[in-house]
Design brief:
mainly alpha; about 75% helix
Amino acid sequence: MPGAMGVVQRSYSPIDVCSDAAGIAGNLFAFVLFVSPIPTFRRIIRSQSTEQFSGLPYVYALLNCLICLWYGTPIVSPGIILVATVNSVGAIFQFMYITIFIINAEKAKKVKMLGLLLAVFALFGIIVIASMRLFDHPSRKLFVGYLSVASLISMFASPLLIINLVIKTKSVEFMPFYLSLSTFLMSISFFAYGMFKEDPFIYVPNGVGTILGIVQLSLYFYYSTVFGEDSREPLLE
């Protein structure tokens, strides 16, 4: 008897299956990126010193993950929970890296990093409070969405420095292949996820990341073929 159990089943379309598959793939490839700094932090722990390493990339990555995590929550953007999951994992990793960095840094650097960490949490708190207090639901999604796009595009643009270095040195030493490949695969996965979800705040920045990933891989194959590979090891500093 229809409706006897009082349960309404939601139809699961092929688009839903494809979007979930793309989102899960993006989460897996992102995890590879999140664990890539582990060799650096093993070295820091062994030497009990941060040497010449910079903690700024991890501070910025934490802020980026927090903003994108907030965008992916149901209270801001319902239906894209896989954006929230990947960035929650990313935020945990970045916080762990920053904590290790602070513990092993010299006093001046320790104070600076601790101040930056508190500033990240304060800024994120302001964003959350402002988006909840000042905007209704549609406007809230636009506000946080534009912030996440700006943050993601600036993050994806950072490899331009490495691309410039590869062209100048004619060496792929500073462009680890598997790291570049993971970045490309993560970007294209979330680009597809955003397209399936019809969410420009996801597919636009990841489209930019996909293009930059193609450029990186093309340069890698060109320079490694023409000039040879100096090293496959990732640049630690």
